From TrEMBL:
Gene Ontology BP terms: cell wall organization; peptidoglycan biosynthetic process; regulation of cell shape
Signal peptide: none
Active site annotation, chain numbering: 93 (proton donor/acceptor), 203 (proton donor/acceptor)
Lyase among keywords: no
Keywords attached to this entry: Cell shape, Cell wall biogenesis/degradation, Isomerase, Peptidoglycan synthesis
Protein's recorded name: Glutamate racemase
């Protein structure tokens, strides 16, 4: 196991020696279409940046997977993105941010890797003290949002609810169905009982559910979309590193690991255009070489 970890480190070092210039793309990945909320913010806040987007649709949802599985997936995706020459990666997936970000930051030390949890937590404490978080079961179980909020403001109170049905509902584009309202009411009920004043979207899929959630919440409850704030952080980081793009961007590259068609249909609705989406299976050699090491690092 030790030799495999060393091999991974050497392979990572070799790839990072080739890190690119300001004209290189920003890598964005998620388990599926949830990361499109981050992509829209990138288009709005950083319109000159080129983007490489990967949706791991063959393996969604991430929120019911183990830490070792998530860590393996993230390593595979990051290795591929570095090979594609990205200058920064935004983990547009709360589950990955909660379970893998610290490990992969140490393994890819020269690659800026941003997660969505800390920017979301910082934004939440600026507007409220009684904070609810809806997320995948894995993110909720990790207590990542609670820890991040309390690190910023120890006087805040945090309640977290795992919502296993939300990602499949969004991926199937079933947002307007009566069943979705019923499920959302059940998830929100414990938070409403605590009289929350702030609700954090603890999954990048969830802003797509905003009309449903808004209809069920008191108007006084503030909604926090971490996608907005992680892109602000990305902009600041690019400035600090001198990597912000000032020329016109190249067209966004879209890749998925599953059938592209469902992704295309939802993207057309949410982005207002029809993206060219290519299918890619991560190399089996990477899967095999990382699998033993991933198990050895599981909690």
């Amino acid at each position: 196991m030790k030799s495999q970890a060393s091999d991974f480190g050497r392979r990572t070092e070799f790839l990072l020696d080739q890190l690119p210039s300001s004209q290189a793309p920003i890598g964005v990945f998620d388990s599926g279409v949830g990361g499109l909320t981050v992509l829209r913010e990138l288009y709005r806040q950083l319109p000159n940046e080129s983007i490489l987007y990967f949706g791991d649709t063959a393996r969604l949802p991430y929120g019911t997977k183990s830490r070792s599985e998530i860590l393996q997936y993230v390593r595979e995706i990051l290795t591929w993105m570095v090979q594609r020459g990205v200058k920064m990666v935004i983990m547009a997936c709360n589950t990955s941010s909660a379970l893998a970000i610290e490990t992969v930051r140490s393994e890819f030390p020269d690659l800026p890797i941003l997660g969505v949890i800390l920017p979301g937590a910082r934004a939440a404490v600026q507007v409220g003290k009684r904070i609810g978080v809806i997320s995948t079961p894995a993110t909720a179980a990790s207590n990542a949002y609670r820890d991040a909020v309390l690190e910023v403001d120890p006087t805040a109170e945090v309640w977290q609810i795992g919502c296993p049905e939300f990602v499949p509902i969004v991926e199937a584009n079933r947002i307007d169905e009566p069943y979705t309202y019923q499920v959302a009411q059940e998830y929100l009920e414990p938070l409403l009982e605590q009289e929350i004043d702030t609700l954090v979207y603890g999954c990048t899929h969830y802003p797509h559910l905003a009309p449903v959630l808004r209809s069920l919440l008191p108007r006084s409850v503030q909604l926090i979309d971490p996608a907005v704030h992680v892109v602000k952080s990305a902009s600041q980081e690019l400035d600090l590193l001198g990597l912000k793009q000032v020329r016109s961007p190249r067209p966004t590259e879209f890749w998925v690991s599953g059938n592209p068609q469902p992704f295309i249909e939802i993207s057309r609705q949410w982005l207002g255009c029809t993206p060219l989406v290519e299918q890619m299976t991560l190399p089996s050699v990477i899967w095999q070489s990382l699998s033993v090491e991933s198990e050895s690092t599981s909690l």
